[in-house]
Amino acid sequence: MFVMELAYTAPIEAVEEHMDAHFAWLDGHYASGVFLASGRKVPRDGGIVLAAGVSRAEIERIAAEDPFAVAGVCTYRITEFIASRTSSDLAAVRENPAV
After folding, report:
1. What is the pLDDT of residue 92?
2. Which ranges of the chain have pLDDT less than 70?
3. CA separation for the pair 92, 35 (Å, rounded)
């Protein structure tokens, strides 16, 4: 599983110019089943996306295709982790690490 942390690198007005395209990008990855949750950080200086079911290389490609990243108004920090415990709602993405 991945935590994709966006940090805005431009004023919020510049970020908002790309919001519709960013939402369409999010919708496409929700439809494919890769994105599990997303939203704004508080304070509003970026956002978080939880993703699963793809490789590190694929998640990096997905992040690079975000219209925010393409426009240069955000950077990504991607953290991979093993979701060994989840709520029942996320049981499908639970992982069993090799011991």
Report:
1. 82
2. 97-99
3. 13
Residue appearing with tokens 């004023």: 11
Distance CA 27, CA 54 (A): 17
Residue written as token pair 């639970």: 94
Distances (CA, A) of 8 to 26, 29, 46, 75: 17, 21, 5, 7
Cα(37)–Cα(12) distance, integer angstroms: 22
Under 8 Å between Cβ of 26 and 38: yes
> First vs last Cα of the chain: how many Å apart?
18
Q: Residue 57 and residue 29: Cα distance in Å, rounded?
A: 15
Structure tokens at 31: 């439809």
Give the position of tokens 């990008």.
Answer: 25
Name the residue with tokens 């890769």: 34
Starting at the edge strand found earlier in the chain, the sheet holding 46-51 runs: 35-40, 46-51, 2-8, 74-80
Residue type at 82 in one-letter notation: I
